[in-house]
């Protein structure tokens, strides 16, 4: 009845920051291979790799210049084959990042496309100037204009992200054909599916001016349009249906209704989607303007999505988001407690859980002091824009410090030795100095560590049909307490999660399935940030 991608836990690797093996300061595929046994021990069943294809790295691999080759700094295709085989031997499936909304401007297609007479011209979205300026008023995700003028062609091309990420043209069937062949290439190599980057933006229904002038002007013309649904159904029918694989979409600005249309089984499109709404509960309008985290807002949104969809892709972190323990927990006094509580929350919701590298040891946001330490293109663009708008330097830095994607991208903290055991060279991005206290090596030796707890919780989920397939029913969604029930075939689990630094009385019946504190019976009082799952039989 269930699929393997519903039973397994996914672990996302950001290859640049995972493990360096040749001293160039950049994580690589041999580095991933070297940690496979540890990932297996943790209980991971699927690895999702952020892009490892050839790329000029304007956006760290999300700008692909060759979909069929490995970025040399990450290794070779032989390394990739070894990774897929090695993971397979440990019963771990590998999933690739599929970035097909745009390519790099250094991709061969785009280079050829700059010639107006080339058959590749129509692979991208080229338009002449309007009144001597860009073809419309759209704005990009990376705080720039969406159109770049190309002297060689005498026209502008569209880019929703950086100007080195030109958007592909899905009005052209040839583009779809190319994408299908790329997917087959990787599936034939033995990968088990794709995480589909900004997949609900593929089809630009029109290039008219946008009416909303606030953020992302123009987005009404490309968010989850019918043309995108058609593309997704083609990819399913022509490719995905012919392999034992799954597809998870990264879908920006989706509502539950849009998500339903993108991933309900009856639609034949995606298998599940990453929504953003819960990640937006600590902000005003855009992520750069943070407001105080209130657990009530966060868990109400999670509940809304649990209720709305048959199956969710559950996540609290990825390479674009600050660290969850710093954001939704408490990374000082209750660091360990809140990281474990978030682990229980993530792993007991209905849906496929996604863990981002470092989350399993409670890695925190970076401790950088200046913009010079930041590498992310988005952070630099936004800083420039804010300065341009005359925000004082201190305020700009604070905004970047709290929200920058580099918070999640600092290298993996393996041990308390030099450079956290990530590299023997100079790391490409600074390492959080708390590695002496927060690292894999120490946590593997400590039976009360966050990592050991993740391992236990993943195993508990693996053995519980109720946690995997049970229905979801919320009991409490307040600023201090998130409680819900899961029910399946005569068994009921009650999940109690404290988001509070104070003790709280919460009634609950049954024996303890797992508790973040390690307790074996429940007395009606939750400790600060404690998580407890109670198990009880249901009368028929
Ligand atoms: O991200 C898409 C996206 O909309 C955001 O999460 C984005 O990272 C940004 O923070 C908006 O403010 C995906 C990838 O996950 C991201 O790493 C890429 O940069 C982006 O697409 C372009 O490929
Ligand atoms: Ca390396």
For the structure shown, list the relevant keywords.
540 residues; alpha/beta; TIM Barrel; Oligo-1,6-glucosidase, domain 2; Immunoglobulin-like; 3 domains; 8-stranded parallel sheet; 5-stranded antiparallel sheet; 17 helices; 29% helix; globular; binds 1-O-alpha-D-glucopyranosyl-D-fructose; binds calcium ion
Structure notes:
With 540 residues, the protein is an alpha/beta fold. It folds into 3 domains: 4-105 and 168-456, Glycosidases (TIM Barrel, Alpha-Beta Barrel); 108-158, Oligo-1,6-glucosidase, domain 2 (Alpha-Beta Complex); 471-537, Golgi alpha-mannosidase II (Immunoglobulin-like), CATH 2.60.40.1180. It is built from 17 helices and 22 strands. Strands 11-10-9-5-2-1-15-14 form an 8-stranded parallel beta sheet. A 5-stranded antiparallel beta sheet has the order 16-17-18-22-20. A 3-stranded antiparallel beta sheet has the order 6-8-7, with no helix packed on it. Helix 11 runs parallel beside helix 16 (450-463) and helix 12 (377-388) packs antiparallel against helix 13. The two termini are 22 Å apart. Residues 20-22, 24, 26, 28 line the site of calcium ion.
């Amino acid at each position: 009845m269930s699929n393997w991608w519903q039973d397994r836990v996914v672990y996302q690797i950001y290859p640049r920051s995972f493990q360096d093996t040749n001293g160039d300061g950049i994580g690589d595929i041999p580095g991933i291979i070297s940690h496979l046994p540890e990932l297996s021990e943790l209980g991971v069943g699927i690895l999702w790799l952020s892009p490892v294809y050839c790329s000029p790295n304007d956006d760290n691999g999300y700008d692909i210049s060759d979909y069929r080759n490995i970025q040399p700094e990450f290794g070779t295709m032989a390394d990739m084959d070894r990774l897929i085989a090695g993971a397979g031997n440990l019963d771990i499936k590998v999933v690739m990042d599929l970035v097909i909304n745009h390519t790099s401007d250094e991709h061969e297609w785009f280079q050829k496309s700059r010639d107006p007479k080339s058959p590749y011209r129509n692979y991208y979205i080229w338009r002449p100037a309007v009144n001597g300026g860009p073809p419309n008023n759209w704005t990009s995700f990376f705080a720039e204009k969406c159109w770049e003028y190309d002297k060689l062609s005498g026209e502008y091309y569209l880019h929703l992200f950086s100007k080195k990420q030109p958007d592909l043209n899905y009005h052209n069937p040839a583009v779809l054909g190319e994408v299908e062949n790329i997917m087959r290439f990787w599936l034939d190599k033995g990968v088990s599916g794709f995480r589909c980057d900004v997949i609900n933006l593929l089809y630009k229904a029109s290039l008219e001016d946008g009416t909303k002038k606030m953020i992302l002007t123009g987005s009404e013309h490309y968010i989850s349009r019918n043309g995108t649904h058609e593309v997704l159904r083609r990819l399913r029918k022509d490719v995905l249906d012919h392999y034992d694989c799954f597809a998870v979409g990264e879908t920006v600005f989706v509502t539950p209704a849009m998500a339903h249309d993108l991933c309900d089984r009856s639609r034949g499109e995606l298998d599940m989607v990453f929504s953003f709404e819960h990640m937006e509960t600590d902000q005003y309008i855009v992520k750069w303007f943070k407001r105080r985290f209130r657990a009530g807002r966060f868990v109400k949104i999670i509940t809304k999505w649990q209720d709305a969809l048959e199956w969710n892709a559950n996540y609290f972190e990825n390479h674009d988001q600050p660290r969850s323990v710093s954001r939704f927990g408490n990374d000082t006094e209750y660091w360990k407690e809140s990281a474990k509580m978030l682990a229980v929350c993530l792993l007991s919701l209905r849906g496929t859980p996604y863990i981002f590298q470092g989350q399993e040891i409670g890695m925190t946001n970076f401790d950088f002091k200046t913009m010079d330490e930041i590498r992310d293109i988005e952070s630099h663009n936004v800083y420039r824009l804010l300065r341009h708008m005359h925000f004082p330097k201190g305020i700009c830095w604070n905004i970047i410090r709290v929200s920058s994607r580099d918070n999640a991208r600092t290298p993996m903290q393996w041990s308390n030795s030099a450079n956290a055991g990530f590299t023997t060279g100079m790391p490409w991005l600074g390492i959080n100095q708390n590695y002496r206290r927060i690292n894999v090596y120490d946590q593997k030796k400590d039976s009360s560590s966050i990592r050991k707890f993740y391992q236990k919780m993943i195993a508990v989920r693996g053995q519980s049909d109720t946690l995997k397939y049970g229905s979801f029913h919320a009991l409490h969604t307040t600023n201090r307490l998130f409680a819900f029930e899961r029910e399946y075939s005569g068994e009921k689990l009650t999940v109690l999660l404290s988001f509070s630094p104070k003790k709280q009385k919460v009634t609950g019946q049954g024996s303890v399935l797992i508790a973040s504190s390690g307790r074996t019976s429940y007395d009606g009082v939750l400790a600060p940030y404690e998580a407890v799952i109670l198990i009880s039989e249901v009368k028929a």
